[in-house]
Amino acid sequence: xxxxxxxxxxxxIPYALxxxxxxxxxxxxxxxxxxxxxxxxxxxxxxxxxxxxxLNSMSTVNGS
Length: 64
Hints:
Elements: H1 2-11, E1 15-18, H2 21-26, E2 28-33, E3 39-43, H3 47-61
């Protein structure tokens, strides 16, 4: 997984979703901020909304 996260960083991808066996069992997804390496666990029902909120927030901050 470290290679994939490094590829995200090298490519400028801001967020990665982590879905491993633990996440599958608990019906959640980890959203990883590639730059800061912070992870937030959210339910599978809400991860799209949370990721969209974060991406929209980036657009606002960057003036896009």
